Amino acid sequence: MTSPAPGITAVDIEKWFQLHIASLTGLPPEEVSGAADFESFGIDSVQGVDMLVALENWLAMPDDIPMELLFEAPSIAEAASRVADCKARAARS
Amino acid sequence: MLHLVTNDNRALYGPELDDLHRARKAVFVDELGWRLRVRDGMEFDEYDDERAMHIIGFGANRDVVMGIRVRPADDRSMLGDHFTGFLKPGGRPFGDGRTWEVSRGFCRERGLRRPYFMRKAACMISPLEIALAAGIDRYIGFTDIRMLSLYSQFGWKLTMLGEPMPYGEGDGVAYEAEVSQEVISTIRQTWGLPAPAYIKLDDLDGAANVHDVESALSAADPKRSQILPPSPAPEPVRRRFSPVTS
After folding, report:
1. Per-block average pLDDT, block size 10, for chain B (246 residues)?
2. How many CB atoms within 10 Å of residue A28?
3. A residues 54-83 near B, CB within 8 Å?
């Protein structure tokens, strides 16, 4: 996936999650609900960590996104929101 | 909680070791399709000898859900015997007395929340703790490259011993992992693990089996109880892909 524009939003990140999960599971992206959590798609730890690393690379934030930000979130949409906040904080510091 | 099983205490773990080898058959032969030796539904190889040490984690149903084997590499090793083509020439010899090998690592426990990762982290730190106590300063191993991110995420410090190459089931690479107090301390702090993360039982102390001993030890140590198996993760809503072990 290409690098995001500077004004990345939670919606952009949620879309990224949907596309990534769709590619893992074979589901159509529109069936990857932002209201679901990651575990509900049967993602295992290898795939989970790979997704985290891919996200960090996409956002140009290597080793900067705590695993809990994604996997403790109650939903993909909430995870996207937390990652967007994390990205904004990193940009300010 | 992780159990260390060596030649000294393997008599305590008869059924559990059988379960370990059945789990290895399920993971490596049935799921990953590796062509390995199977006997009575269990996978064994030539490195499952009296020098092998097994780190085993049990699930809520007392079944083996994670395991890893470590063994001194000073007489022979999987990497030196079977994967020499993956090694750059001129590396440090495996028979230097300070090298152990790690192999047959697997985890069948699903779940992405912290308790699950904590248990995997306990499984990853235990070999380092055991090796450091024995005066070892590195592990060698061979892995599918898909596992490298996970190892690093858990805090292992890896150095590749050659270039990744196809091994028949994907691309694999030979590596060494640093064994040091610094690495162990970092992992322990990151994941909030007890020291050590594993237990080694010398006897059952009147208990019926190793699981009952584990329960008693956990009840007496809150930090240790954190790495007991959590409730099973919910079944995925939809899946159209094969599981990949971790």
Report:
1. 95 97 96 92 97 96 95 97 95 96 94 90 97 98 93 95 92 97 97 94 93 89 79 52 35
2. 9
3. 67-68, 70-72
Residues of B within 8 A of A39 (CB-CB) are: 110-113, 233-234, 236
d(CA A36, CA A75): 5
| Beta-ladder partners of B143 | B173
* ipTM for the predicted complex: 0.77
Give the residue from B66, B144, B237 with the most A CB atoms within 10 Å of its CB, the best one to mutate. Answer: B237
Domain locations along chain A: 10-92
Number of CB pairs < 8 Å for A and B?
73
In whole angstroms, give the CA distance from residue A49 to residue A70.
10
Residue B246 lies in a domain: no
What's the predicted TM-score (pTM) here? Answer: 0.88
> Whose structure tokens read 């099983």?
B5
What the block records as the tokens of A54 is 């891919």
A3-16 pLDDT per residue, tens: 555 678 999 999 99
Residue B212 lies inside a defined structural domain of this protein = yes
Which residues form the domain of B72? 2-225
Per-chain mean pLDDT for chain A: 89
Looking at the partner chain, which of A27, A53, A71 has a beta carbon nearest the beta carbon of B238? Answer: A27
Q: Is B54 helix (H, G, I), strand (E, B) or coil?
A: strand
Our CA-based measurement puts residue B112 at a distance from the nearest CA of chain A, in whole angstroms, of: 6
Residues of chain A with pLDDT > 70, as a percent, come to: 94
Q: Which residues of B touch A45 (CB under 8 A)?
A: 107, 110, 112, 116-117, 120, 150, 246
